Amino acid sequence: MRPVDSSTVNALTTGRLPRWAPWVLLGGSWIVLCVVFGFVAAASDSEFNIAAALFLGTILFDVLIFVVAYLVEGARQARDRLITSLVATAFIIALLPLVSLISTVLVNGLPRFDIQFFSESMRNVVGEGGGALHAIMGTLLITLAATLISVPIGLLTAIYLVEYGRGSLARAITFLVDVMTGIPSIVAGLFAYAFFSLILSDPGVRFGLGGSVALSLLMIPVVVRSSEEMLKLVPNELREASYALGVPKWLTILKIVIPTSIAGITTGVTLAISRVIGETAPLLLIAGFTASMNYNLFEEKMMSLPVFVYTQYANPGTDVQSYLDRAWAGALALIVIVMVLNLVARLIAKIFSPKLGR
Amino acid sequence: MTTAPAPRAKLRLGDRIFSGSTVTAGVIILVALAAVAIFLIAQSIPALTADPAELKGSPASFWAYVAPLAFGTMWAAALALLMALPISIGIALFISHYAPRRVAQTLGYIIDLLAAVPSVVFGLWGIKVLAPAVTPLYGWLVDNLGWFPLFSPPVSGTGRTVLTVAIVLAVMIIPIITAVTREVFLQTPRLHEEAALALGATRWEMIQMAVLPFGRPGMISAAMLGLGRALGETMVVAMVLSPALVITFVLTSSSNSPTIAGNIALNFPEAHGVDVNVLIATGLILFAITFAINSVARIVINRRKAFSGAN
């Protein structure tokens, strides 16, 4: 640094750390810990653990910034700097598992992420080979049926809450829908089992549509909440203009309100699908698992992709590694599906949303 | 003198059908929720009346079977919440008050990505990546802190302990808690924040004085929502935990109290007869616990909305 003439010093910045100081400290701490871990890894011939290095480096940074700021800036500023660094640390801590998870799934899933995986079922497969076609088919059918059940109910309920609902019934629905979002998925599966085994008086009942019912129980509250938010965004002027032209209320809703908010509703539905498409527990209970194709939602066990991942992991045959490879490939397929759905939802929201502002 | 009745809009057939169907949809939701309770209760009754000797593992009574499960559920969820809450509040503050506004939304989206990962993938990651990674750490903990009851030996050789499960659960509930607390922090009245800063407060002092007191009810209910999610999480527990029907606080041993949800997932596919009813009865208990926790959380949030003046 160039020497500063004390007569021209800016009084507002004296006694403060320069702007680059935290960044240099953070980078420095990371480099130091990486070097230390590198030496340890080289000495003990173990793998270089980058996650631990970055984590401990961040902790070192938290301590360093507090000490440095305490010396230069005083106690109050030092506490402020400490909290700032801790808050950033919290974010980095949350990133570590995400990065680790995605990289492991990619590395372990790609070897079996091939054409065979998407074109064959597990029928008569006991070792290598085989695929998840039956599971992907099952997931598509079950989720499609769940969507067909949830969207009409969810959307109509949202319309009721926004356009008609007054009084205690609306309040009760709003409250219970909120509470429903917290139902554990396994309870939804147990309900579907309890319901269908009583109705069909079959204690071993397993079929695809039961899974759809369980999933709709989880999906409806999400659809209601998101559609409700979107319907509320429609400006009242549009409704009043329609009424002024003599259009009945139901046609106003169908032709004015819903078309205006359809982009947001579609986004909400897509996000709801992406939430339930990865559900494992309810399908494990009520849809069961099988190695064969099944196109019929109403009969026989039906495999789904999350359950496929679970069973490949939980019931490996003699050739454990090939089962595990299939499980990772299934996990990769699941993550790709969920990410694509999320992306599509955001694109819909961005491209098709009405331009209300001028 | 009589006044003419106010003119009423003619009720059209289309209006009636449409509003009727929306009401029906709303009522279906209420009925479905009631049906969940009714059918679970109906299927649980055989378990409560059955002779305990017929149950799997022949426990002394149904409640002796449930006690370790209920304890394990609470213990794992509480540990997860303990780890997730400070981190989530940190992330929420980071996004709402520290990160530059332009990147804040992207950061929020990255955290939401965590919520999008299916639970079975978390389970696979927990057992294949996290558990081997933390096993040496557990060994060190038991060797050096074995006198402390939470780490009493023997150590698990596989890392499939309640602490590993709690770490994965914490990662899974961070996005939920973050999302709710972030919303609350963003609602803090601007004038309070600016008043604090104008009096010379540092950013942390401003947050301490203006943001945190305002957001406290929101943080509490967010924690409860996260707790509810952790209580009901199934696949991670089923895949990672190595269970034993005991009640234990030990974090690093290979015999852990099982959780209700994990126990159902592990035993349901092979269960038959009255064992199915027992599992459903445990599920009913889980439903009741999560329902109560979620209700309280929602009531707190809704009351906040009514009095905050932020909207």
UniProtKB/TrEMBL annotation, chain A:
PROSITE patterns: ABC_TM1. It is found in: Cell membrane. The keyword Mitochondrion does not apply. InterPro entries: MetI-like, MetI-like_sf, Phosphate_PstA, Phosphate_transprt_permease. The chain crosses the membrane at residues 20-43, 50-71, 83-110, 131-162, 182-200, 207-224, 280-298, 327-349. It comes from the Bacteria. Coiled coil: none annotated. Residues 136-345 form the ABC transmembrane type-1 domain. Keywords: Cell membrane, Membrane, Phosphate transport, Transmembrane, Transmembrane helix, Transport. Its main location: membrane. It holds the Pfam family BPD_transp_1. It is a multi-pass membrane protein. Part of the binding-protein-dependent transport system for phosphate; probably responsible for the translocation of the substrate across the membrane. Belongs to the binding-protein-dependent transport system permease family. CysTW subfamily. This is Phosphate transport system permease protein PstA.
Automatic annotation (TrEMBL), chain B:
Keywords: Cell membrane, Membrane, Phosphate transport, Transmembrane, Transmembrane helix, Transport. It is a multi-pass membrane protein. It comes from Conyzicola nivalis. Belongs to the binding-protein-dependent transport system permease family. CysTW subfamily. Residues 70-297 form the ABC transmembrane type-1 domain. Part of the binding-protein-dependent transport system for phosphate; probably responsible for the translocation of the substrate across the membrane. This is Phosphate transport system permease protein. It is found in: Cell membrane. It comes from the Bacteria. The keyword ATP-binding does not apply. The chain crosses the membrane at residues 21-42, 62-95, 107-127, 161-180, 230-251, 278-301. Pfam families: BPD_transp_1. Coiled coil: none annotated.
